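Can anyone check this?
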Amino acid sequence: MNLTINGEAVEVNVAPGDDRPLLWVLREDLALTGTKFGCGVSACGACTVLVDGQPTRSCVTPAATLEGRSVTTIEGLDTPQGKAVQQAWTELDVVQCGWCQSGQILAATALLTQNASPTEDDVNTSMSANICRCATYDRIRNAVVRASQLVGTE
């Protein structure tokens, strides 16, 4: 089947009805290893990618259901919002171990794409579905707010 990954059409060996998760197609077939395996049950958010701009857990999303849809991974994040989030992450030194960060960054990008000026409550609500085992939640929240400021200046 054909998928659009990071703006490029790619052919993958997935049959209709195959329940193989998108996560493993990305990591094993396409060598896009920025998307991480965390829990395998959609609870932690480490595997978050954007499907048609919406945060999606790739560990439980069958790749076969995505034909004709657009998937963005951390490797292909190239929007003004995505660049602002990445810049803010660097400025505020958010990362500790880094395992959850691609999922966190993609979730933050989706938020800022939908709401360029989120309140602290908006950020907390939107980002609450992504777990950080290093507990850098204050830095993550501050970086999302900083990214919204950066987007506002472009």
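Reply from J.R.: I decoded it. The chain has two domains: 2-76, 80-152.
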